[in-house]
Amino acid sequence: MSASSPLSTRNRPEISPRHGFTESHTENMLRDSVLLGAALSDGLTALILQDGTGTWYRDSSGLSRDQLAALESTLTQEPGTDAEGPLEREGLQMVKTVSLVNGCHQVIGTFCVLSPVPLALSEAQLAGLALLAEHIQTIVKMDQQKLETRAAPRPPAAASFVPGLVHELGSFIFGISANLDAFEARFADLDEVKTYGANIRRSLDRMGAFIVELREYGYPQRLSWSPLEPEPMLREVFEHQRSLAEEKNIDLQIRIDGVLPALQGDREGLRTALARVVDLVLHKEEPGGRVVISVAPGRQGNREAIFGHLDFSFEPFMNIDPARLFEPFYYRVSGLGRLALPGARRVFESHGGTLTAGKGPDGSMRISFMLPSEVAYPLRSATQP
Description:
- This is Histidine kinase domain-containing protein.
- Residues 1-24 are annotated as: Disordered.
- It comes from Geothrix limicola.
- By secondary structure, the protein is of the alpha+beta class.
- The chain has helices spanning 24-41, 65-75, 86-89, 123-149, 158-186, 191-218, 230-247, 267-284, 340-350, and strands at residues 44-51, 54-61, 93-101, 107-115, 225-228, 251-256, 263-266, 290-300, 303-312, 354-359, 365-372.
- It has a 5-stranded mixed β-sheet. It has a 4-stranded antiparallel β-sheet with strand order 2-1-4-3, with helices on one face.
- The chain is globular.
């Protein structure tokens, strides 16, 4: 960076970045990242981190308080809504925006390069900024893990405990099954052995099916993590479940209000989870009843999201606590496994969403779900001068 660069004469603005971090070394690493970005690009830089409640961390190199506020306004501004945007009024041009994402591929913030004069970045500079973005994402992830570590003591996380349990149970079943095979072969001429052996094998088969559910619950698989359109997926679930609704004489309806934003995730996993929820409702609904699936776009804080719910009769669930419907082993319905419903909730949560149950309008029951959009908030495309 040359001595004549505008960065060399600007002081750091009096803007506190402390909006969530509790470790000073984490703040220092983020501050160093902002300065490193300025050195790489030879421009003005800013780092803005967001969650569902809004902006929780901000810092810049070379920007005043008003300029940083203008930048935040620009990042959340719909394209084409203002001929002269907030940045232009502050005498700045957007050179480059780099979106920062978390493990669920949701945007958690933006790193920006700006300039008061036209500025073009080389391929080497762009590659350096991409590496810097990965570095910032790692810092945020590490800090979040420290926050979880500082939380109150809790049972082992499913991601670490359940795989071990699955392995041990699988080994046990394999040993019992092998011994049963040998026992049946040794005493094949005894009728009582066949009778009792069949009973034992049915129990082993049920335990094997449970282990499969347990594995899915402990770590929801993301075999095809990619952008997806939610409406075709929802209609596919609807069509798949319509035969069961017709068989039980249930009026199954789907209502999609507006254009749903794109999602990021495992299409098959989400489709299966939604199908399990609808299947539960249809199995419990009385003949002649009505089940309505309503879905619409919305926002969760600064994030675009889709919100949906299923309304159905409350009578079949009269003796259960709706708030506990998706707890492991709390509720089981014929046709679904012991962890099918908790597993469905785990899939939604692994995509950054929610799946809950509660009382609905007019004495009905409602299962509600939310899935965040592919991006957390709209970003104006960076224009090269």
